[in-house]
Amino acid sequence: MGLGAKVGLSVATGALLAILATRAIAQSGDSSGIFGKAPNYAKESKRLESQIALTQRQLDDASRPHPRGMAESLKRNEELLDRMKNRCAEAFDPASRLPLIYVAASSDSSRSANRGHCVDRERFPSGFMEKVATAACESDGSYRMALQPGSYAVVIAEAGDSHLSNPRSKLVTVKSQQWLQIMRGDEDSACCEESISGKKPPYNSGVKGRGPSPQVGCYGVPGPRPNGEVVQCVEAYSPGGDRMVACAACDSSNQSFTMPLAPGEYLIAFDAEKEPGSNAAPRLVTIAPQQWLRVDAKRAGIRAAPCPRLP
Questions:
Q1: What pLDDT sits at residue 261?
Q2: For residues 47 and 291, what is the distance between their CA atoms, to the nearest angstrom?
């Protein structure tokens, strides 16, 4: 083979290797990101699949009475399984974390140690409002997520209902040309901030009022009632409902609350009015500077669940 042929072959080989390298990089997703394996993924996904199949067979059996809440349990397990398979790794903007619970200085809840961030399982189940990326898991729980360099709050689906319904996040910083291995979320990602408890409100405006009455049990037996804990009972959202602006705790003795808000428009929603059986919709309010608007829960719009028939 002549020198020219060898040179031509060398150039062609180099070009081919460059193409293959480029394809490999493209297939890997990008030049930076995170990867790992969800803990106990295979075992937990099989458990959920078995539970879903069993519950569905029981619901399909018209000859047997169905325990109360079975359909809700089926739906919840289906949602958990979908999350494990299709959204087992999620990255969020850390700045979009839900706000801290506001507890009025006069509330008995202000003495509680159970403090932290607002919660909205329906809209923001992971505790953040802006999702950046999502990755599905393979059958063994492994995942790979391409991310641009920057900081992210990462949530990894973990085995166990408590972790799936109350996911933990891990704050990570991805650098250029770097792939970080993330196996699970931590409890150290801004989890332990104090609530805005007993402090001077950041605004001299907002809403005050009383939340819904505590749930009453059947036949005169009181329902479960927390004693002196921080209990989130009311939230303020942007007019479109896509962002939670604030939340507040109700005093466990009289259900009173204070929720500071900057002047503007908000949707005010009470937790109890989101439950099945409620016909109360969130209220759109406009708050002027130096104004504290009175907003009370619509108790008439909340219907108690039917009690079981006595033997």
A1: 96
A2: 53
Condensed to tens digits (0 to 9), the pLDDT of residues 143-161 reads: 999 999 999 999 987 655 4
Give the ranges where 29-68 is alpha helix by DSSP (H).
41-60
Any alpha helices (H) in 61-187, and if so which ranges? 70-86, 161-165
**Closest alpha carbon to 122 in 276, 285, 257:** 276
Question: Please, which pLDDT band fits residue 52 given cuts at 50, 70 and 90?
Answer: confident
H runs (alpha helix) in 160-264:
161-165
Can you read off the two tokens belonging to residue 32? 């930076």
Residue 6 host element (H or E): helix 3-28
13 Cβ neighbours under 8 A, 6+ residues apart: none
Q: Tell me the Cα Rg of the chain.
A: 26
Note whether 147 and 95 are within 8 A (CB).
no
Least Cα distance to 198 among 232, 234, 249 occurs for: 249
Whether residue 58 is predicted with pLDDT greater than 50 in this model: the reply is yes
Angle value at C-alpha 109, between 103 and 115, nearest 5 degrees = 65
Mean pLDDT of 128-133: 95
Distance between CA 28 and CA 30 in Å, rounded?
Answer: 6
Task: Output b/e per residue, 95-119; b: 16+ Cβ within 10 A.
Answer: ebbbbbbbbbeebebbebeebbbbb
Q: For helices 41-60 and 70-86, what crossing angle results, to 10°?
A: 150
Is residue 80 within 8 A of residue 161, CB to CB? The reply is yes
10 backbone dihedrals φ, ψ, rounded to 5°: -65, -45
pLDDT digits (tens, 9 = 90+) for 17-39: 433 333 333 344 468 999 998 88
Cα–Cα distance, 148 to 168 (Å, whole number): 22
Model confidence pLDDT, tens digit, residues 268-303? 999 866 655 555 678 999 999 999 999 998 763 344
